[in-house]
Each structure stands twice: as structure tokens, then as C-alpha cells.
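no rush on this but wanted to send it before i forget. theres a chain ive been looking at and ive put its sequence and its fold in C-alpha cell form underneath. please have a look and point out which stretches look like helix strand or loop to you. thanks a lot i owe you, the record is right below:
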Amino acid sequence: MPNVKIFTDSTSDMPQGWKETYDIGVIPLYVVFDDATYRDGVDITPDQVYRKVSATSALPKTAAPSPADFMNAFAPAIENGDDIVYLSLSSSLSSTYQNARLAAEEFPSERVKVVDSGTLCGGIALLAVKAAQAALHGGSSDEIVSMLEQERNRLSTEFVIDTLDYLHMGGRCSGMQNFIGSLLKIRPVLRMVDGTIVPVSKVRGKKEKAVEQMLSHALSDIDRMDRELLIVAHTQAEEDAKYLRDALEAAGVKEIVVIEAGCVIGSHCGPHTVGLMYLKNEDRDRH
């Protein structure tokens, strides 16, 4: 049986240790400022993105890897005799999934399988690690795809955004929504549902109140949460991340990995965003 190599993209914000331990391939998306194009996590850092946005009051554009980018990334593994499972950013948020599908068609049948994660950031990383562990234990590409399609239905991904400015500049909320949100100091708690981002609550006041609400949602799941592994992701929100980590450790979560989201995620959410990603047992809805 061929070895199975797991790939994902840079929106997974995969910790370096996991990439090395499990030999996970990460394909960068692009960040574009005017005529300058950067590979997410390779040519530019999140801090550089936020500084550029602050200086210009304009967001960069983000772009999916091309089918050729995927082909170039996949080819060495195929030539090595490996099968590939690629786990993409939610297909509702990007053309990354479709471009990977186009690339997969250029290889021999069934050698490259593409799975829509239905999520983003640390949620993808968590699923990718599960896939890589299954590959290490001899799982076939079909078995890993089946496992991922089940596990993504158990995944909870929530996050709190500190400012609506980035969503407004990116065209994801109107000027009036941004004005009212800023005036009332509204911090939305957002959740991934069926591959899309939906608001579950809008908290007025300090961001800490919104973070507390997100934590409350997680603690309400504690009895059915898979407490083996939970991810806290953030963009320049180290104190919030530490607070969440400490609270969830006290609640009995065994391993909590804190990651800083990269340039593409940061370009859409902005700095000072913080989120939680974990699996729930015996749950079939998509949140």
C-alpha cells in the first residue's frame, strides 16, 4: 500500500512542529499589495501586513494558489510513489479547493484526493494532524478521506473579532454596519457553520465580554468535547489566548496548542482576533 502524504494550505496556520513531525506539506496562498505579491508565511509576516494596512488604510487582496502551484507541490510526492490527501480551506471562502481539484485531475486517477475542510485556521490544522496520524498508522487515502469527512462534522470553530474595520475594508460589512458597530463597540462572536462564517452573537462593550461568551460556549461543550486536543488561535492577542488556554486547562483539556494566525486569515479578521477550535463527540451539526 502506498504511503499517504498529507497536504494543506497556509490558511491552516500549521505549527512548525507539526509540519516537521508529520511531514505535512503546506501550500501558500498569496497576499497582494498593489503590484507586490507575497506568499503567505514565506515572503511576508502578519506584523508586516498590519503595518502596511495601518499606513495605507487599504487591505491587501488575497488569492488562492493556482492549479499549477498545486501541481508543482504535489508532483514530488507522486514521483516518490506516495498518494496524496489535500485538505483545503472551506470551499465557500476561497477558490483554493477548486484549484486543487483541477490540479488533482492532472495526475493518475485516485492518486490525489481533495477534501473540503469546511473551516479555516486552526480547525484545518487539527483535522490535518488527525489525517497525518492516520497515515502514520497505515491508513489508505480512501480511509483518511472518509475519516476527515466524518471529523469535520464534529469540529467547532468560533472566534471573536476586535474591530469591524477589516471586514468593512474587505467588503464583508457595510459602512453603516461598521459605523454602528464602532459607535456601540460591538464585538461579534463568529462561528463556522456549513463552511461559512455566521455571527452567533454581538457583544457590546469590551472585547473581554465577547471572549468570555466564546469561552462559555466551549465550557458548555466540555462533557462532549474531545479534550485530547484543542487549538487557540489568535492575531496579536497573546493575553486573550493565554487566558483561554488557562481556563480550558483548568476545565480538563489535556493538550492546548496556541497558534498565531497568518497573513491571509489576518487580512480578513484583523489584529486582536482570538478563536477556539476543537472536536465534539456525538454531535452531527456543523458548529
